[in-house]
Amino acid sequence: MKHFLLFLLLFCVIMGYSQNDFLKPFKDCKIDGSITIYDYHAHKWISSDINDSHYQTLPASTFKILNSLIFLEEEIVAGENEVMKWPGNPDTIKYGNRPEIYHDMNLKEAFQLSAVWVYLNLSKKVGKEKYKQYLADCNYGNGNISVNDDDFWNFGYLGISPANQIEFLIGFYEETLPFSKESFKTVKELMVEEETDTYILRAKTGWTRDGGKDTGWWVGYVEKKDNTYFFATRLVKDVENQNPDFSKCRKEITRTILTQMNILE
Q1: Could you say which of 61, 114, 123, 161 is catalytic?
Q2: pTM
Q3: 205-239 pLDDT, tens per residue?
Q4: To which H or E segment does residue 203 belong?
Q5: Fewer Cβ in 10 A, N or C end of the chain?
Q6: 47 labelled catalytic
């Protein structure tokens, strides 16, 4: 850990950034959290909080990246355009008060809208024993899905750190995880958030309110012509502490820092 911290500080000096450059966007949003970044070609890490980058929390809907791979690999869904039927009677406690997700939709829309009901219904067809194997094979988090709840990525004991999120994303990017090329191709297309002449941004948000805490994520990577940069941003606050900007700050903080580093325009 000490060697990693020293390396991180040296990297910040070399790159011309101070710790405050990375902390200021969090202060501007009046929120606690961290961002961890990995420069793929240089094999270098940078983080606004080295300790937080190794602290595990629930992945929330960032788990939809791995979940989508599993659904496709297990042939639970045929592809991104297969339509899932809305079962009716929304459980607003479980799904949230989000009328925009209460209708038939395909996997692509479910991923982009983070429709909990679609992923919960499909996950029941996987079963926890298969999930345990996939989590182990992908070195994803602590692998603890022992909670008595199908929604184990939003509630319970499954934990993953920002650094581990990036490690998983590197395996996803390299296609070294135990999935077919077709599954990788489909999920990579689902993740496209922005595409310009100079880069492609692939990412997924997440937000859970388990344990009296709001935990918000934005994880992904930016593919440029000459390099790829991975990121994992996580915000945390007590549920009772109101912050109407909590949701949008996940992306705003990330974009600010990635723009400072000339990764985004």
Answers
A1: 61
A2: 0.92
A3: 999 999 999 999 999 999 999 999 999 999 999 99
A4: strand 199-208
A5: N
A6: no
